[in-house]
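Q:
My hope is that you can spare some time for a protein that puzzles me. I hope you can help me see how the letters and the tokens relate. Thank you; the sequence and its tokens follow:
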Amino acid sequence: MISLQNVSKVYRTKTIETTALNNINLEVPKGEFLSIMGPSGCGKSTLLNIIGLLDEPSDGAVIVAGQTVQKYSSKATSRFRNEKLGFIFQSFHLIPDLKVIDNVELPLLYRNVSGKERRRLSEEALESVGLKNRMNHFPNQLSGGQKQRVAIARAIVGKPEIILADEPTGNLDSVMGNEVMDILMKLNKEGQTTIVMVTHDENMARKTNRLVRLYDGSQIQ
């Protein structure tokens, strides 16, 4: 489902060159739940951004869902990202002035989907994370765990093949964190959704199928 071949990422300025990723080779088969761990600044988020087509590698090839997406135009890349990928962020990234249901609908606005169908799919996604009864609330009326569940509903509303999660439990206590992990594990097992998760939490990482460790931009495990 995901293939990184000799991927490197170097950030350059006039005076300094910083290697964020160094010759990463990674294969993620369909239906795997993969964790990426490592100290701050080791390249975890950079790697996730490259898999998610939010950044481009300096060298190497990125193949997602069988497509070498580096050959795509920016418009085609955006369409591919919207259809194939779902994103979950540590800070939720919900729009405070929109109700929960409207936040969840957002990815569908970029598709040819009727308003009635958007609403149906969004309600279905919220029901799957146990928050259909909160669909008319605003984000500031929710707890941190509820906000993250809304973010998961938004990520899955378009039925993506791949979910990319950047520290999805990082801002939550252990109880809420375990609830979020249970939802992700259910999505992975029942829907065969491929999930790549960046985390600092060894306990959460142990729940996934496989763990990859990064150190100073290199893969060490």
